[in-house]
Amino acid sequence: MQLTSDSGNSIPNILQPKLNKPELQLGSNGAAVEELQKLLTNLNIYTGKIDGIFEENTQESVKQFQRRVFLPENGIVDDNTWQALYTGRPVNLPELKKGSRGELVKKVQRILKSTQDYIGYVDGEFGEITESAVQSWQVRNNLPDTGIIDEATWRTLSQIPQ
Fold it and tell me: Which ranges carry the Peptidoglycan binding-like domain (predicted)?
């Protein structure tokens, strides 16, 4: 089977393995919430009590983690959030390159602005200035300077405090 790529922000479902973990959100409780709290603690994000109760502090920690790994910051622990928690890095993100556009491009532009690699407007358009900023980031992080945001580049970008 051959997959084709476009500059969209979605990945075919066949590339997203399921962990069979429950979806968690504010008000959830039990062993899965305790596991979540332990994972967030290990990532130095959650500092609250590990009690299996998904309250506001847990929700804010989830949102902080989601921001770090480029997931929607909704505080809901779905399959993508579980996968990212287990790997400690972004998962199931598209390759971004010149011509890509959208919210993920804006997030990258904001992050690269904070590192002083990007000097353009945060407009969600992956043009020459964004490509140059990505290349600069890649060179400083010992990655191939392709100007394309691939898995390795996503991983290094996720290490920047946001």
Answer: 29-85, 101-157
Which residues, given as ranges, of the chain have pLDDT below 70? 1-18
pLDDT value for 20: 85
Map out the domains of the chain as residue ranges: 21-87, 103-157
The reported pTM is 0.79
- Listed in sequence order, the residues at least 6 apart from 73 whose beta carbon sits closer than 8 Å to its beta carbon are 63, 66, 67
Task: Answer whether CATH 1.10.101.10 is correct for domain 21-87.
Answer: yes
What is the Cα 130 distance to its own chain's centre?
18
Q: Tell me how far CA of residue 145 lies from CA of 13, 26, 95, 115, 135, in angstroms.
A: 29, 42, 14, 17, 5
Rounded to the nearest integer, the mean pLDDT of the chain is 89
